[in-house]
Amino acid sequence: MRITIGYTLESIGYVVGAQGLISFASQTFFGAEWGWMHKVVDLPSTAYLALVALGAALVVTGLRTRKAAERRKGA
Fold it and tell me: Membrane-spanning regions, if any (predicted)?
């Protein structure tokens, strides 16, 4: 079960991080709205950087959860 949770957190992290990065870059450098994140929330450019950090944190948490479960299973 922990392995599934790890994969899920990691996958969500990749999506949130990528959408945050796309939204930040599009607002900052092009003055346009790309991706689908702007359809869900209307945030300033700097707040999208927080979503990139949140995505990275979810990826790291997912990896740690999955690796810990694999070590326990192998022991």
Answer: 12-30, 45-63
